[in-house]
Amino acid sequence: MGNPEKVKRTAPKSAGGTAEGRFRSKNDSHSIANQRSSDNIFQTIKSKITTREAAEFYGLKVGRNGMACCPFHPDRNPSLKVDERFHCFGCGADGDVIDYAAKLFHLTNIEAARKLAGDFEIHISEKTFRPIRSPAAKQRQTDCRVNEKFERWRSWAISVLTMYVNSMQGWKERFAPKSESEEWNPLFVESLSNLDAYNYFLDVLYYGSDAEQRGFFLEMKEVIRNLERREQKWNRESADGRPA
């Protein structure tokens, strides 16, 4: 049996004459670009491989008349017509070479195109397979990076505050005056003034809402940076044998 008559395809009419057709959001534009990219990939594959070639490559025995037992349902009598496309007169499965590979291996169409390109050694640039990101996707990626950066800052801030709170607790015990007449050590005064407040700051970073934590970041990032410098100075002085 010869090849079935090809159906002539005509390009869809432009929608530019209507208000709906003239309106294109950015997301729509990116979706159209993605669709065109996928269409180009599929056309490349379909121009180089027929469904029959792929079916036989993947193990289907096709008769001289192009008929085969359908792999998509129990089929004892050949009911699948395979040529450039495929159609099963038993279960109704129908499509092109991309659809065949996708259905046979339970893949998406783009995954099927990638498999066919690999199996038949058809070179398609990886850029072709890379989808164009929509503005919404780009924004999600930006938000993710911002969140990761903030989480790194939060962990760092917690470590700095924890060291400072521990230091103040030590000062409060170490430099507590032994009598009413004894002059108060400045570090003891600092611990009395700041210990409760900085414990509260730690609670904000551990348990506060996202808005509270980001507000804390905007207000206190320089304070915490200065605390870290101060801790580093104390550590150097301790290493040199000088009192903190």
Write the layout of secondary structure elements.
Elements: H1 19-22, H2 26-48, H3 51-57, E1 67-68, E2 80-82, E3 86-88, E4 94-95, H4 97-105, H5 109-119, H6 126-129, H7 135-174, H8 186-207, H9 210-239
Antiparallel strand pairs: 1-2, 2-3, 3-4
Helix pairs in contact: 2-5, 3-4, 4-5, 7-8, 7-9
The largest beta-sheet arranges its strands as: 1-2-3-4
**CATH hierarchy, class of the largest domain:** Alpha Beta
CATH architecture of the largest domain: Alpha-Beta Complex
Strand content: under 5%
Distance between the termini: 96 Å
Radius of gyration: 35 Å
Determine the mean pLDDT.
81
What order do the helices and strands follow? Answer: HHHEEEEHHHHHH
Structural class: mainly alpha
Poorly predicted regions: 1-37
**Tally of helical runs:** 9
Count of distinct strands: 4
CATH homologous group name of the largest domain? Zinc finger, CHC2-typedomain
How would you describe what is shown here?
The chain has 244 residues and is mostly helical. The protein has 2 domains: 23-129, DNA Primase, Chain A, CATH 3.90.580.10; 136-239, no CATH class. 61% of the residues lie in helices and 4% in strands. It has helices spanning 19-22, 26-48, 51-57, 97-105, 109-119, 126-129, 135-174, 186-207, 210-239; strands at 67-68, 80-82, 86-88, 94-95. The protein has a 4-stranded antiparallel beta sheet with strand order 1-2-3-4. Strand 3 (86-88) and strand 4 (94-95) form a beta hairpin. Helix 2 runs parallel beside helix 5 and helix 7 runs antiparallel to helix 8. It is rod-shaped and about 110 Å long. The chain starts with 18 loop residues before the first helix and ends in a 5-residue tail after the last helix. Residues 1-37 have low confidence and may be disordered.
